[in-house]
């Protein structure tokens, strides 16, 4: 009886919930260097709703509508070698600015 109660508590608490998995459908590299802001990534595929970003040096990234500058968006800190998955919509661009060192932003488009 105790085992059944324990299993019920696990399901109620959400411990049995699986993580979402994705396929990588496309990938590209956006370099950032001595210039303050790089040119934006031109966008993602029309069916892409998530992107995985990982950088080779600390940087700030922003995902925004086309023709938006980093100055008018809210950049998010992305630490070195810590992949993050972000939600994105068709037509959005990815902007990047370096923190202290030059590097590359690896962008992987994800699909279920």
In short, what is this structure?
The protein is mostly beta strands. It has one helix at residues 2-13; strands at residues 23-32, 50-55, 59-65, 76-78, 84-87, 92-98, 103-111. Helices cover 11% and strands 41% of the residues.
Characterise the protein shown here.
- The protein has 112 residues and is mostly beta strands.
- The protein has a single domain (19-111), classed as Sandwich (Jelly Rolls).
- The chain has one helix and seven strands, in the order αβββββββ.
- It has one helix at residues 2-13, and strands at 23-32, 50-55, 59-65, 76-78, 84-87, 92-98, 103-111.
- It has a four-stranded antiparallel beta sheet with strand order 1-7-2-5, with no helix packed on it. Strands 4-3-6 form a three-stranded antiparallel beta sheet, with no helix packed on it.
- It is globular and about 65 Å long.
- It starts with a helix and ends with a strand.
- The mean pLDDT is 79.
Keywords for this entry:
Jelly Rolls; 4-stranded antiparallel beta sheet; mainly beta; 112 residues; 41% strand; single chain; 11% helix; globular; 3-stranded antiparallel beta sheet
Give the C-alpha Rg: 18 Å
Task: Tell me about the largest β-sheet.
Answer: 4 strands, antiparallel
If you consult CATH, what is the topology?
Jelly Rolls
Low-confidence stretches: none
Helix content: 10-25%
Query: How many helices does DSSP assign?
Result: 1
Structural class: mainly beta
Oligomeric state: single chain
**pLDDT average, as an integer?**
79
Series of secondary-structure elements, N-terminal to C-terminal: HEEEEEEE
Question: How does CATH name the architecture?
Answer: Sandwich
Strand content: 35-45%
**What is the overall silhouette?**
globular
CATH superfamily: Jelly Rolls
Please give the alpha-carbon distance between the first and last residues: 39 Å
């Amino acid at each position: 009886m105790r085992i059944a109660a324990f299993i019920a508590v696990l399901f109620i608490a959400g411990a049995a919930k699986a993580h979402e998995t994705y396929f990588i459908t496309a990938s590209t590299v956006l370099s950032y260097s001595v210039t303050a802001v790089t040119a934006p990534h031109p966008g993602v595929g029309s069916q892409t709703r998530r992107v995985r970003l990982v950088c080779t040096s600390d940087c700030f990234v922003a995902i925004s509508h086309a023709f938006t500058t980093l100055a008018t968006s809210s950049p998010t800190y992305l630490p070195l070698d810590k992949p993050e998955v972000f939600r994105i919509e068709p037509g959005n661009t990815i902007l990047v600015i370096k923190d202290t060192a030059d590097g590359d932003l690896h962008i992987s488009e994800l699909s279920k």
